[in-house]
């Protein structure tokens, strides 16, 4: 069971196998929320538990190890390594866990994910040779490479068109069957894929009818 | 995927950054290697130059020595020849000069000889043979004779008649060229005053004491009693003067003795062999000829010595000049070495420092470019130490490759600047394995040091800041 404590006294728990979406306006700290949840940004107050462990009580090295084995990140900007191929980008996740890719196990996993996300034909392409949708799917495959307990997705469809957005969200939905997914977005379209939607405003969880829905998004 | 593979891929992606890093490291290593090679080349060349100069100067000294030897030998030969000629001339014209002796009967009144030019006392002719067979070595020529003054009736002239058999061979001496030849029987030799006054010449027949004799030779003017003398065969003279088997005296010519009391020494010898005789010096002071010859010999010796000394001096001068040349060359090379050392001592550290700064700046720029990449790598769980490893691995690679390229380049520049031809024996001597190993060791260290700060900054980068910004 994963627990993420939201900002300002809000507490939020994500179960493994659950797809939770947090709707929050753009520029209102959604990335910050995810970074805190992912053990990358220490909160000023409150508590975070990640796989029954408070990452901020660990050393930097231990926290990195926890992150490598527990969390998968998907960002709006993809953050792929520009000079690595699709396969290499996915395998880069194994650098963190220290899993030797030569043994084949990690490569098999990577190939499976790449195939799953329809990237087999793009195996040896670098990010500059991929479409935006393909890049995001590569990022998703990387996030899943180490079989994390939770995926933290920050506006994963922010730079995608509708078609690609649907593809990525469908994958996330699929992935959520095995692992937890916490998606933060300001896009209402993405909300329908989630099992549970939480609305936030000014760092607090609010009810949906408190004008969080913004038709212009 | 390993960190090394990540590093290689990044290098391939950002190859210009890598090439610039490599260039900076190559320049740093090349400057150091070039400087060391230049100085080593200088040292080797100096050794070669000084050795060549040494050989040159030794050859010059040798040549000089040979010249001097030839000169001295030539001079010695000249002196020997001159000495021989002098001896020969002196022997011929100074037989009455110098160290000549008269061996006379002990009872001969010397006053008679000096005032009248005649000898009245006799001794056995056998004395001559005895003396010639003795161990006396101080006499070189022995002439037994009879001598008397008489009035030559036929030509109304007072003459000194000398009967001579010429020189008799001396047992203990090698055969010497005779100073006076034997006068054959029935012939006569005329002194200057005799033949000129009576208009006689070689071949003329004359009568003397009832004997008819043929003139066999006439002498030139000598300026002494020889001019008024005539010589006939000893046996004939003994018969005419009724002195058969008797002689008036013996002339001992070219007597030479090493001691100062030459006459005394010979006198002792002769009186030992011929008791009943007396020995007197004959002609002008007896030492004059020996002294003249000795003086001439000494003069020649002195002259030879002078030539030898001159030769030695010139050889010494040559040696001094050679030493000075060598010293100047050595100083010149040392001065050049000092200049080069100073130059590289200033230039090389500047180049290395500048290269290190350039590497640092390039690494920092690379780090800034990769901020997003570093952020995501940290986000997916890479530790700070792994980020540090990524950057420092690249530095080590730059160092290793840069050291190899820099060594080759530096070696080439050092050789060219030092004027060493590629492929020559000196070029082979220039290469040192330990220099290469040193470059291979130090270059990565320099690269690490230059990249350290940017690498630390990268490792300590907060991924949250980067990811939030991006």
Which key features would you list for this structure?
heterodimer, A: 217 residues, alpha/beta, Rossmann fold, two-stranded antiparallel ribbon, 7 helices, B: 470 residues, alpha+beta, 2 domains, nine-stranded mixed beta sheet, 13% strand
Outline:
The complex is a heterodimer of chains A (217) and B (470). With 217 residues, chain A is of the alpha/beta class.
How does this model look, in words?
The complex is a heterodimer of chains A (217) and B (470). Chain A has 217 residues and is α/β, with parallel strands linked by helices. Chain A has one domain (2-206): 3-Layer(aba) Sandwich (Rossmann fold). Chain A is built from seven helices and eight strands. Chain A has helices at residues 30-37, 60-70, 86-91, 93-97, 105-116, 132-144, 162-175; strands spanning 2-5, 11-14, 19-23, 71-75, 150-154, 180-185, 196-201, 204-206. In chain A, the strands form two sheets. Chain A has a six-stranded mixed beta sheet, with helices on both faces. In chain A, a hairpin with a 2-residue loop joins β7 and β8. The longest helix of chain A has 14 residues, at 162-175. The radius of gyration of chain A is 17 Å and the shape is globular. Chain B is an alpha+beta fold and 470 residues long. Chain B folds into two domains: 3-67 and 312-469, no CATH class; 99-283, no CATH class. Chain B has 13 helices and eleven strands. Chain B has helices at 3-13, 15-93, 110-116, 126-132, 192-197, 234-240, 262-273, 287-369, 371-379, 384-417, 425-430, 433-459, 463-469; strands spanning 100-105, 123-124, 141-152, 157-164, 187-190, 205-208, 211-218, 229-233, 246-247, 249-253, 277-282. Chain B has a nine-stranded mixed beta sheet. A two-stranded antiparallel ribbon of chain B has the order 2-9. The longest helix of chain B is centred in the C-terminal third of the chain and has 83 residues, at 287-369. The two termini of chain B are 26 Å apart. The A-B interface holds A 31-32, 35, 38, 40-41, 60-61, 64-65, 67-69, 71-73, 75, 77, 79-84, 88, 91-97, 101, 142-143, 146 and B 1-3, 5-6, 9-10, 12-14, 372-373, 375-386, 463-464, 467-468, 470.
């Amino acid at each position: 069971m994963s627990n993420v404590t939201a900002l300002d006294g809000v507490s939020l728990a994500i179960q493994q196998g659950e797809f939770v979406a947090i709707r929050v306006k753009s520029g209102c700290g959604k990335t910050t929320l995810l970074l805190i949840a992912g053990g990358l940004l220490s909160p000023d107050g409150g508590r975070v538990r990640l796989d029954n462990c408070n990452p901020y009580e660990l050393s930097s090295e231990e926290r990195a190890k926890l992150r490598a084995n527990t969390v998968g990140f998907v960002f709006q900007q993809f953050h792929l390594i520009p000079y690595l191929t699709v396969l290499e980008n996915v395998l880069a996740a194994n650098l963190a866990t220290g899993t030797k890719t030569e043994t084949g196990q990690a490569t098999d996993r990577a190939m499976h994910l790449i195939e799953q996300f329809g990237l087999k034909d793009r195996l040896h392409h670098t990010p500059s040779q991929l479409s935006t949708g393909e890049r995001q799917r590569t990022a998703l495959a990387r996030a899943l490479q180490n079989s994390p307990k939770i995926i933290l997705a920050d506006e994963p469809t922010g730079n995608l068109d509708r078609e690609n957005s649907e593809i990525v969200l469908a994958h996330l939905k699929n992935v959520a069957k095995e692992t937890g997914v916490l998606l933060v977005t300001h896009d209402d379209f993405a909300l329908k894929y989630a099992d549970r939607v939480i609305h936030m405003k000014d760092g607090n969880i609010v009810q949906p009818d408190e004008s969080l829905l913004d038709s212009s998004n | 995927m390993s960190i090394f593979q990540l590093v290689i891929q990044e290098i391939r992606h950002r190859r210009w950054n890598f090439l610039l890093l490599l260039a900076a490291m190559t320049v740093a290593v090349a400057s150091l290697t070039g400087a060391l090679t230049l100085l080593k080349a200088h040292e080797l060349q100096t050794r070669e130059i000084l050795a060549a100069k040494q050989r040159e100067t030794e050859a010059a000294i040798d040549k000089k020595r040979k010249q001097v030897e030839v000169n001295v030998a030539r001079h010695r030969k000249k002196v020997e020849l001159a000495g021989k000629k002098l001896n020969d001339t002196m022997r011929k014209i100074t037989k009455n000069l110098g160290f000549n002796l008269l061996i006379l009967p002990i009872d001969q009144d010397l006053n008679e000889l000096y005032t009248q030019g005649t000898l009245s006392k006799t001794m056995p002719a056998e004395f001559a043979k005895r003396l010639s067979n003795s161990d006396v070595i101080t006499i070189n020529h022995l002439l037994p004779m009879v001598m008397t003054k008489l009035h030559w009736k036929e030509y109304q002239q007072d003459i000194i008649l000398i009967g001579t058999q010429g020189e008799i061979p001396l047992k203990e001496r090698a055969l010497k060229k005779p100073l006076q030849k034997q006068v054959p029987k029935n012939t006569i030799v005329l002194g200057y005053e005799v033949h000129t006054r009576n208009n006689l010449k070689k071949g003329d027949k004359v009568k003397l004491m009832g004997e008819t004799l043929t003139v066999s030779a006439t002498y030139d003017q000598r300026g002494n009693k020889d001019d008024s003398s005539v010589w006939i065969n000893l046996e004939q003279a003994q018969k005419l003067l009724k002195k058969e088997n008797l002689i008036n005296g013996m002339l001992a010519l070219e007597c030479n003795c090493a001691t100062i009391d030459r006459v005394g020494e010979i006198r002792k010898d002769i009186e030992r062999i011929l008791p009943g005789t007396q020995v007197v010096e004959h002609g002008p002071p007896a030492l004059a000829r020996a002294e003249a010859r000795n003086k001439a010999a000494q003069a020649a010796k002195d002259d030879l010595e002078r030539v030898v000394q001159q030769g030695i001096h010139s050889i010494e001068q040559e040696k001094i000049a050679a030493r000075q040349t060598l010293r100047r060359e050595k100083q010149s090379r040392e001065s050049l070495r000092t200049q080069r050392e100073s130059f590289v001592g200033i230039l090389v550290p500047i180049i290395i420092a500048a290269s290190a700064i350039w590497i640092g700046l390039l690494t920092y720029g690379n780090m800034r470019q990769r901020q997003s990449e570093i952020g995501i790598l940290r986000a997916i769980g890479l530790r700070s130490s792994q980020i540090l490893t990524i950057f420092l691995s690249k530095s080590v690679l730059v160092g290793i490759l840069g050291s190899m390229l820099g060594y080759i380049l530096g070696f080439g520049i050092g050789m060219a600047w030092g004027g060493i031809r590629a492929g020559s024996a000196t070029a082979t001597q220039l290469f040192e394995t330990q220099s290469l190993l040193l470059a291979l060791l130090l270059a990565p260290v320099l690269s690490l040091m230059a990249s350290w700060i940017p690498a630390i900054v990268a490792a300590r980068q907060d991924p949250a800041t980067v990811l939030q910004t991006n």
